Amino acid sequence: MTAASITVRVYNQTNSVYGFWEMQGAWNEAGVTWNNAQPLSNRGDQVGSFSPTSQGGYTINLNADGVALVHRWIDSGVNDGVLIQSGGTNNGIDMRSSEYGTQNQRPTLTISYQ
After folding, report:
1. b/e for 49-62, b at 16 or more Cβ within 10 A?
2. One pLDDT digit (tens) per residue for the chain, 114 residues
3. How far apart are CA 71 and CA 94, in angstroms?
4. Does residue 74 sit in helix, strand or coil?
């Protein structure tokens, strides 16, 4: 594996910077909330960031820690995901989710390898 990126679709933008952080704790998609996932105490390395200043697609190239994280997901079969967190703004963003009806608008993880 030589690189990894995450692509998201923003439909309500902001001027803030959002970080992508490794999650270091198991969670269940059906029952997770901000409070019970305890993201601030289960957050690992920052693996990327972006500033969604307009609507549309954004591809976030993961840094070396992010590439190492994806390697661990592949090697172990355990993927606790990433947390997307603002740098402190009250003006949040809205992004398409994995359940969105149009498949090409959903978040995508892309892995490059040789």
Report:
1. ebebeeeeebebeb
2. 999 999 999 999 988 899 999 998 888 888 887 777 777 788 899 999 999 999 999 999 999 999 999 999 999 999 999 989 887 777 788 999 999 999 999 999 999 998
3. 28
4. helix
Q: End-to-end CA distance of the chain, in Å? A: 6
The tokens of 111 are what? 């892995």
CA-based nearest residue to 78, from 37, 23, 35, 5:
23
Element (H or E) spanning 94, and its range?
strand 94-95
> Which residue in this structure is represented by tokens 């947390």?
83
pTM over 0.85: yes
Residues making up the chain, counted from first to last: 114
Strands 3-12 and 94-95 turn out to be antiparallel
Element (H, E) at 5: strand 3-12
